[in-house]
Design brief:
single chain, 199 residues, alpha/beta, 6-stranded parallel β-sheet, two-stranded antiparallel ribbon, 10 strands
Length: 199
């Protein structure tokens, strides 16, 4: 029996889902559908398709001021679904300035209300996924990983994990993330399974 771990880059998946589908995603069903599709890939190459879902880890970042509802939903609803662990990281406010190319003036605050400009970049999600991929692989905690993202930044981690004999499967949206798909043992498009996930 091949032990499967699912690693989901929440915003990478969710933003593309919103643009592409427009309906709600059945998060409870998502791991089961991903594992079933992965089993079909194993069968296509004549490999044993006995897969057992061990854990689904969802990695997200939230703006503490604007994403309170999202944060509650992730922690109180999704985290209670079978197989799920949810890891949420706060986006910290960082000051930034706006540079006008025409007048060459740099502004750090709104000219109307004088409130400082701030950004809340996503921090911690990618490094948490990479850490878990590597650490769990070295612990021998899984045989197959399903990585749900299109982000090519994961390629070095994918290559190292596969050196341990783990099969990496990438689930990404069509026309996105070709480099990551090529680095993985197998891949499939989320577009192909969306019908099983629409609520």
């Amino acid at each position: 029996m091949n032990r499967v771990r699912v690693f989901i880059d929440y915003w990478n998946f969710q933003l593309a889902w919103n643009r592409t589908i427009g309906k709600g995603c059945d998060w409870r069903e998502l791991p089961r559908v991903l594992v079933r599709r992965t089993g079909e890939l194993f069968e296509k190459v004549g490999t044993d398709a006995s897969l057992s879902l061990e854990r689904t880890t969802l990695y997200a970042s939230v703006d503490p001021d604007g994403d309170a509802k999202q944060h509650r939903w992730l922690n109180s609803t999704v985290a209670r679904f079978p197989s799920y662990t949810v890891k949420v990281y706060e986006r910290l406010a960082r000051p930034y300035s706006v540079h006008c190319r025409l007048c060459k003036v740099e502004t750090q605050a709104c000219p109307n209300c004088e409130a400082p400009y701030v950004r809340r970049p996503e921090k911690g999600v990618d490094s948490a996924i990479v850490t878990d991929l590597l650490w769990l692989a070295w612990e021998g905690a899984y045989d197959v990983a399903i990585l749900v993202t299109s982000d090519a930044d994961f390629i070095p981690a994918v290559e190292r994990v596969q050196e341990r004999g783990v099969k990496m499967v990438n689930a990404a949206w069509r026309n996105r993330g070709h480099e990551l798909q090529q680095a993985c043992w197998a891949s499939f498009y989320i577009d192909e399974i969306k019908g099983d996930l629409c609520r």
